[in-house]
Amino acid sequence: MTLMTRRVQFVLFSMLIALGSLPASGAAPASVTGQVRDSSGIPQIGAIVELLRPDLTVIATVYTDSKGRFNISSVFPGHYAVKAMGTSFLPSMRENVHVRATTVVNLTLNTFYEVMQWLPTEPRSADSRADDWAWTLRSAANRPLLRWLEDGPLVVVSDGTGTNPRLKARLVATGQEGTFGESGERYSAMVEATPSHSRELLASVDFDPHTDAGMESMLGFRQDLGFAGSVQSVAAVALHPEIDGPGTDAAGAPEGLDEAAIRTWETMNLGDEFEAEVGASQVLARFARNSPNTVLAALPYATVGWRKGNSTFRYSVTTFIPSAAEADDTRTQSWLPRFSTRNGQLALEHGLHQEIGWERRTDASGMSVLVFADNIDNPVLEAMGKFSEGFNGADQALFDNASNLLRIAGPDFSTAGMMAAYEHRLPHGSNIRLSYANGDALVMSAQDASSPQPVAASQLIAASHPRHAQMYALALSGTLDGTGTRWRASYRWQPEDTVTPVAAFAKDATEPYLNFHFRQPIHLRKDGVGGFEALLDLRNLLAQGYRPYLLSDGSLLVFAQDQRSFRAGLAFTF
User: Fold this and answer.
1) What is the Rg, in whole angstroms, of the alpha carbon atoms belonging to the chain?
2) CATH class of residue range 25-158
3) Is the full-model pTM beyond 0.85?
4) Residue 483 zone, left/alpha/beta (φ > 0; ψ -120 to 50; rest)
């Protein structure tokens, strides 16, 4: 037995030695090539180009030729950084360069003066869909920054092409109407910090000046783990004293709704081919006036993907339903689920969503196709009310006294379907996105407009039912040359009797029907540094998808998947 054990150990040891020698003998050598130019596009002769490991130790050093070109050969595949240096210029470095076969890296050298003029005003890349402040935790935005390296020089660092500057603080004053949980005027303050090159921090406070306790706030943190991935957390809290629910106090004052959520997740890269993301949201909601009506829930999710060239295959499972109207990750409501009431109790909209999908992206275009299966619990039905005297919306639903909007839970349902989307970059920095989806959505039959028969609200909700439907969407976005106006126009159609979305779990779904978003920079200085930005958001501009119903008490409820609303304001970034 001892002899047999030794033989097995010897065989295993021999296999380990053989496997350990494979990378050295089997990995095909790669190369890094490119060109170094200044900000005017002039090739730089004799510039020093260094290839660095992730810890910034130098592997190889070469010089550019008469056309500013360089070539570093015999490089093992992997992740590196490339740095260029030239006389009278700040060094420039590209991080996170994935070297396979022949990899092209072009670098631009800038003077210190050029960098100071360029950092605050460089426009976003053409394929970005959000404004300059948008801080997407799910995929860290590519932004250049100045960094002091351990070896001394100040370096302009980027993590890819088309990068844009990191903003530090932003003050926003807005007025809005037609949105649940918003009472009109809002003031927001946001701060973004980078304590170290591997950490990011975002804090936001949003309050209503007309209430003593109306406030929304969030705190986000991201720790970069290098090529292994990242760990990220977001805490969000919303206090809405104007929202009422079943069981008001003796004085008849609104109860107020308090919401809190903590979402923590980790992204992992398993080599160059596999990626994974796992996380969960812990949610707490209750009425503020000592009500026992409390919701406490955990909403987990997970995604695994396999990359092959420009293509990625993914499987996802999640329980958190995102809000298409709150696609900006810097807003608190993007991190909170939606609530309504069922049988006089606070109800959380959630479900179980599974999807298998494929996507392919290049510098100029992208397309994706996926199939999904959903179970949706407590789908939110939202209505605008014109109430008769003595009507109390909080007796039947979650009611916002400021906007006259109410939310109530519809019947649970299951659905399966598919989604497809195509994006393409147009000339002059514009983008177009086409998308299609099918699946079940809740529908409400129309009341006879000529002789409406009044019904009770409970009968109306009970009569809603799921039906298979289709959705088509077109979105255009871009930036106008000269004025710097950033704009986005979209139209999403689905049958007007549907009061919940088709493909409710879609993360990047367009808002229903006709929508416009504008961002107009207003510079106070001729060099473009600093200044204000005017904001204008119009949703469901044509007021489509409305389903009006006359109630037995004489009140009128108008249900819609998304109410017509507007938001306008002024932002100052510094």
Assistant:
1) 28
2) mainly beta
3) no
4) alpha
The Cα 76–Cα 557 span in angstroms is: 67
Share of the chain above pLDDT 90, in %: 32
- Asked if residues 431 and 361 have their Cβ atoms less than 8 Å apart, the reply is no
- Report the C-alpha gap between 489 and 397 in whole angstroms: 33
pLDDT digits (tens, 9 = 90+) for 393-434: 556 788 888 788 899 999 999 999 999 999 998 887 789 999
**Three-state SS for 159?**
coil
**What tokens does 466 get?**
């799921």
Q: What is the pLDDT of residue 198?
A: 55
In contact, 81 and 49? CB cutoff 8 Å: no
What pLDDT, in 10s, does the model give residues 292-344? 788 999 999 999 999 888 899 999 999 998 875 555 667 788 889 999 998 88
Distance CA 109, CA 559 (A): 57
Task: Report the DSSP beta bridge partners of residue 45.
Answer: none
In eight-state DSSP terms, residue 181 is: T
Confidence of residue 115 (pLDDT cuts 50, 70, 90): low
Question: Vertex 518, ends 133 and 570: CA angle to 5°?
Answer: 65
For 24, 85, 121, 168, 526, the CA distances from 165, given in Å and listed in that order, are 40, 21, 8, 10, 19
Q: Which residue has the tokens 């106006």?
A: 485
Average pLDDT, the chain: 79
β-partners of residue 220 are 202, 234
- Which uninterrupted H or E stretch holds 117? helix 112-118
Contact present, 524 and 350 (Cβ < 8 Å): no
Residue pair 430/478 in contact by the 8 Å Cβ criterion: yes
Q: Which residue has the tokens 């003998």?
A: 25
Segments making up each domain of the chain, as ranges: 25-158, 264-279+302-569
Cβ atoms 59, 28 nearer than 8 A: no
217/258 Cα distance (integer angstroms)? 12
Cβ neighbours of 554 (radius 10 Å): 13
Contact between 180 and 405 (Cβ < 8 Å): yes
Torsion of CA 200, 203, 204, 205, to 10 degrees: 180
Helices (H) and strands (E) in the chain, counts: 3, 36
